[in-house]
From TrEMBL:
This is Phage membrane protein. InterPro entries: DUF8209, STM2901-like. It comes from the Bacteria. It holds the Pfam family DUF8209. It comes from Candidatus Pantoea multigeneris.
Amino acid sequence: MDTFEGLGDGSYFFAGMFNLTEGELAFWIVVDEASKQLNVQDVFALALIIGGMPLIKTRGKLDAKRTTKGTSALSLAMRTMIKHRLSSSWRSPTWKTMLNGQWARTNSLGGLIGRWLPWLGVAITAYDVTKITWNSIKRFNLIVKPEHRV
């Protein structure tokens, strides 16, 4: 028997597992495709996302209703490493402002970079999820009977 194929009773065989339903087959295909796709860049992406969460307490801010409570490790690190001030305020996303559909402003280059880095992690993760989904559907449709295709 090959790595995957349909069995005579309407069930499927995949990677040494017998009698799989279409749903179980789809699950194991997604797991297999995810294991192929995920690597070091995804650990980096996750670190950027977590590093961008406002977990570090800060002193009071001027406009507590509009600002995010706390700051992120990335923003703090970037502000410490890059002390350059911009001549004008630039718009940048934070978790809170993105949920409210607004943008925060900063004239700190380090803060600006620190606020954008988590979104790089989000983009990498979105790409991986899209690729895993696309490859899983394609592979599932190659394996199953025509009436079971997605």
